[in-house]
Amino acid sequence: MRGRLVIAVGALTMALTSGVAWGAQDDGGQATGSHRTKPPVSHKHPRAHEGVPGYQRVTLPNANVPNFQRRTVHCPPGKKVLGGGAEARGDTAILVGSFPTDDGTGWIGLGRQTATDNVGISVFVICANV
Asked: Region annotation Disordered: residue ranges (predicted)?
């Protein structure tokens, strides 16, 4: 216990000592800290209270399809994919793939079952104006 107290007091002393710059990594991989001379780069993220412009979740409800058949859900026109996912349903269901479409406007899900020739697949996509 005494060793931990000494380490904690030492760390506090260093933090309170003037001239000590603590570093972190910014998005560009450059070291930053209290010696920074220019403001951080803005990535034009919306403010927390504004949300993501045009945020929308679109779901393709569960349906049985033949094993390995792709099910695709698309964003509304003018919106792009932020993320998505899929679920395989059934006693022996396995999700084989869950990924965005090549053009970035939808999400694909596919799966299989080991005991039958069909599988339940549901897919969702998160879209926004980007």
From this structure: 26-49
The reported pTM is 0.62
- d(Cα 76, Cα 74) in Å, to the nearest integer? 6
Encoded tokens for 87: 């679920």
Name the residue range of residue 93's domain: 56-128
In a domain, 124, yes or no: yes
Rg (CA), the chain: 24
- Could you give the number of structural domains in the chain? 1
Per-residue pLDDT of the chain (130 residues; tens, 9 = 90+): 444 333 333 333 333 333 333 333 333 433 333 333 444 333 444 555 568 899 999 999 999 999 999 999 999 999 999 999 999 999 999 999 999 999 999 999 999 999 999 999 999 999 999 8
SS3 content of the chain, % helix, strand, coil (to 5): 10, 45, 45
Residue 39, in any domain of the structure: no
